[in-house]
Amino acid sequence: MVEHDTGDVELTGRDRATLRITRAIAELDIAVDGLRIRLTETGGRVVAQVNARAARRPIRVQVAAATFDQATDDLAGRLTGRILEAAACWSPRPWPNGDMSVPSRVPPGERALGPGLLTRIKPVPLAACPPEVAVSVMDLMDYPVHAFIDADTGLDAIVYRAGPAGYRLARLRPAPPPAPNVIPLTADPLPPPTVTPEQAITRLEDTGLGYLFFIGPDTGRGQLLYRRFDSRYGLLHGAR
């Protein structure tokens, strides 16, 4: 079943997106179900997202583009890549490869200004797993960063795409990379900063980075501030 959340997008545009995406899936001859397509217009850009299950594994793709047709084409191309990864047993992506769903830095002219920058606070149950499993989830779900509980240390942690090897691991307290390091994965040598959400927003506004992993001073737990496609912010923290 295909579900649509079209916002202000024309009906004809929604139909074109459905046709384009279903054709791309049909060409692969791989079992895909639970397909959901969301199309919205925000901040002068078209945001397109697909959620589905491919080869019984959850996948997700999200893109933003200047025009509706460009967003649809980009979405179909990225979705094809995720389906193939899910069906072929995921393997680490090369670095660099330019395959990022959210830019690492946002140009100053595209940053949101004024009050109300934090528009979503989301408690989520963080999965306890090895870092390499968190990396595979991050790739298949098309996330630029993924929060989890590091099974080796029991600490809140994130994985994200960065040099020199392509994947990095940050924990509440620094620790060596996992052994064996099968990805390979580089571990951040410094702890994340202890700041308030407001201070974290200021850091991202000053740097233009897409996200910040930090320690909440009230809880001592890891929190992840991320830039949304509308250039405002969401805050993710582990549910108790």
Task: Spell out the key features of this protein.
single chain; 240 residues; alpha/beta; 4-stranded mixed beta sheet; 4 helices
What this model shows, in words?
The protein is α/β, with parallel strands linked by helices. The protein has helices spanning 11-26, 68-87, 131-140, 197-207, and strands at 4-5, 32-42, 45-54, 57-65, 118-124, 128-129, 145-150, 156-162, 166-171, 186-187, 211-215, 222-227, 233-238. The protein is 24% helix and 33% strand. It has two domains: 4-87, 2-Layer Sandwich (Double Stranded RNA Binding Domain); 108-238, no CATH class. α3 (131-140) links the parallel β6 (128-129) and β7. Residues 100-107 have low confidence and may be disordered.
What is shown here, in short?
Helices cover 24% and strands 33% of the residues.
Q: What's the end-to-end separation, in Å?
A: 34 Å
User: How does the overall form come out from the CA principal axes?
Assistant: globular
Indicate the multimeric state.
Answer: single chain
Please give the number of β-strands: 13
